[in-house]
Amino acid sequence: MFVMSGLLILGGAILLTLWRFTNNVLAENQQEEIGHLLNIYEASLEYGLHSTDNNLLSIAQEQKSLEELSNAEEAKRYYAATDLLDIIKRLRSNNDTVDMLIAIGNYENNVSDASARLTMQDRDAIIAYMNERRLERKEGEKMPTGTQGWIVVTVGEEQYLLRSYDTRDYSAAAWIKADTFLEQILRLEHDTNRTLTLENAQGVLLAGEAYKGTKPTRSWRQDIGKYNLVLVCTVERNTIYEQIPFLPAVILLIVVLMIGLLVWLYSYVRSEIFQPIRALMYTIEYIQNGDYKHRVETRCRNREFSVLNEAFNSMMDTIVELRISEYERQLQQKETELKYFQMQIKPHFFLNAIATIHSMSFDNRGEEIRAYITALSENIRYMFKAGLHTVPIEEELNHLENIWKCRKFCIPAVFSVIWTDRRN
């Protein structure tokens, strides 16, 4: 029993250890996998922003042409815009990250090139935003400084990443749509169980769809360079167990089956072996203490123990019957011996009684003789009536009283006989 319990506990410990080990290994593998994946995605996004920074810097280096955008002569503005347009188109065509590169002067003239991802409505909204921003600076007589790195602005119903260089005469800016910025890595996450979103440093969602399920999740966050942007990867917790490889799953199944087999074996041995043995031992203890009526009552499916229990009960029934037969035989033997002794005692009893009456007649004790004969007759009647069989205690007490009466008369008569013998 203890061995089976130990094996069961050991099997449970093995299963728990294997489960925790597999869980830890899978969690570490997932941590490493997603960490590497986010590093790759972060490098890709950072490269896109860095390339856009270089494009914007290249435009800003065309300072002479940018300043000509605010020249009072229309011809000079035209030639400057033509030169800038060639540069902007070349830079944007080589950069798939940026959605729009734009340069704008004080005459509400702009030079821009946008990707096909932006609609005409989006382009007009961005140009209107740039003109409005320059107008606010002009009316407020503020020194234009441009943006401090990349910022997030909302134009219309879309969110954009914006970086610009501003002076009194021109503004050069790069626009990246937040959704399309994240889309370049979302294409790689097709048909996976991961959810990728783009947030700012304050945790505000910029792009992507937040997890909408109800299961517990685990999230990883990866800063994108020094741009105050965070790439967030969300994974359902139960997907860790869905990634268990085939071999560990088989080993885990074997351990579970082994523990199940041990549980069944433990239950079978307990009900079919240990309980019948315990019941048999208890029955033997009861019989040793004198309870010969106690029998084994445990029923089991084990044929061997069933036969053993039936044989034991049958043996005890036989032993009890033999004990009863032996007791009755001894009782009959004692009864025979008692009858033999009684047959020897009765003649002496009658002779003594006659001798007593004879001795009492010499003393003229008629009343006592009659009382003695009455008690003697009742005593003889009782002896012939009862024999050696059991009688009620009341009759036995009456018999003792009659014997005592006989003795009262018998003792003086004996002394009288002895006195008469001496006198003669």
Note the main sheet: 5 strands, antiparallel
First-residue to last-residue Cα separation:
95 Å
- Strand residues, percent: 5-15%
Care to count the β-strands? 9
- Run of helices and strands: HHHEEHEEEHEEEEHHHHH
What does this structure look like?
- A hairpin with a 2-residue loop joins β3 and β4.
- By secondary structure, the protein is α+β, with helices and mostly antiparallel strands.
- Strands 2-1-5-4-3 form a five-stranded antiparallel β-sheet. A four-stranded antiparallel β-sheet has the order 7-6-9-8.
- It has ten helices and nine strands.
Keywords:
five-stranded antiparallel sheet; disordered C terminus; four-stranded antiparallel sheet; alpha+beta; 424 residues
Characterize this entry briefly:
With 424 residues, this protein is of the alpha+beta class.
Mind sketching the topology for me?
Layout: H1 2-60, H2 63-68, H3 74-93, E1 100-105, E2 110-114, H4 120-140, E3 151-155, E4 158-166, E5 170-177, H5 178-186, E6 194-200, E7 205-207, E8 217-223, E9 229-236, H6 239-242, H7 246-288, H8 303-362, H9 366-386, H10 393-423
Antiparallel strand pairs: 1-2, 1-5, 3-4, 4-5, 6-7, 6-9, 8-9
Helix pairs in contact: 1-7, 8-9, 8-10, 9-10
